[in-house]
Design brief:
Blueprint lengths: L1 E9 L4 H9 L4 E6 L6 E7 L2 H9 L8 E8 L9 H4 L7
Antiparallel strand pairs: 1-3, 1-4, 2-3
Protein name: AsnC family transcriptional regulator
GO molecular function, one term: sequence-specific DNA binding
Pfam family, one: AsnC_trans_reg
Length: 93
Amino acid sequence: MLTAIVLIDTDAARIPEVAAAIADVPGVSEVYSVTGEVDLIALVRVREHEALADVIADQVSKVEGVLRTQTYIAFRAYSKHDLEQAFDLGIED
């Protein structure tokens, strides 16, 4: 699973609508409205590297109200939460 963190500048008057539209894009797992230099941060999770372009460049960046995106691809996850457990179907080997 590949994870990308996407920083998004939007039309300030449309932040809630833009966030909702981005959240509906397949591959986008979460969208946060934040303080600071950007308006939104989206987490994109896909299985293949090529799918990042499909989600971010072809869909997220084209949502009406998105002015600019900046993408960071995660190398490793450091967390107290076990992400693999979140995808566990309960099937034993």
